[in-house]
Amino acid sequence: MQTQLLGTSGIEISRLAYGCMRISGSWDRHEVSRDAVRRGIGILETAVEAGYTFFDHADIYGDTTCETIFGEALAQHPSWRDQLIVATKCGIIFPDQPTPGLPHRYDFSYRHIIDSVESSLERLLMERIDLLMLHRPDYLADPGEVARAFTELRAAGKVREFGVSNFRPSLLSALQSALDFPLQVNQVEIHPYHLDCLTDGTLDQCLERKITPMAWSPVAGGKVASGYAPETKADDYEKQVSLLEALDLAAKAYEIGRTVIALAWLLRHPSGIVPVVGSTNPDNIRAASKATDVEMDRPAWYRILRAARGEGLA
Ligand SMILES: NC(=O)c1ccc[n+]([C@@H]2O[C@H](COP(=O)([O-])OP(=O)(O)OC[C@H]3O[C@@H](n4cnc5c(N)ncnc54)[C@H](OP(=O)(O)O)[C@@H]3O)[C@@H](O)[C@H]2O)c1
Fold it and tell me: How many domains does the structure of the chain reveal?
């Protein structure tokens, strides 16, 4: 698989990241059996064999079990530690955590960031996280307080590089202005069903600051494969059909599957979008890696954009 650099860090990553959100198969840690752990490790082995070297986590995935499974996989494959770049996120706290009655909330406080990193390091069985992202903007975020936590984690060698996720450009700038080192990533939702980042300044800012955009749910959580069923009577059903037709046309031209074309469409953007592949099916994981071989031409890219917008250009 082709590689690229992570922001301005000099760290080499695979053009596609592998997203670990689904590897435990459950969002409840009590439901994750030993068989599920073995299956999760097998999924990671498939991704490594297929050439992915960049792995995306969050403390909350699988109610913490996705990081734990990754730690077990690393223990079984010690050579992976030097071979793989491991990212994780913090900042989301689900309802009733840590005690019943507490609400769903975001937390970018100094204490929460530091404690989250310590817990992730323990689960991942790693000394240092390669990339730490703040998961979703905390309405009460104080850039100075976040910068204090980041600076301390960096100086202690516990985190190598930092980034954000789901950040609007103005909040990213506010945080950057409090930091002495560059943010390397903004991980955002981008796929043909969600085009906001193309026009809301997010990708412009990545281009300007040489920040790597990571695209989460790059095949819309599977919708690019399946489309809408007609019986859902979705308002935009006609638009969805023409989008799938446009993707199929390009898929035929490049002799590749429809979901792989959707990844290639993201890869074509000059900001160096890194799609975060979330499939747990070995065939789909391997097929996705072929997207980096496609050099999509401008007319093909615009045909998909037009169909995704559901209207022509001005
Ligand atoms: N920062 C954030 O806020 C945020 C939010 C969500 C996700 N993420 C990250 O993004 C990653 C990817 O998210 P995602 O899993 O929603 O992404 P995705 O790759 O768009 O969707 C994967 C889903 O699509 C299904 N699918 C069906 N047909 C497929 C095909 N032909 N090829 C590929 N997938 C197919 C997969 O099923 P099969 O397994 O059967 O293939 C799987 O359920 C996550 O693992 C996580 O790391 C980040």
Answer: 1
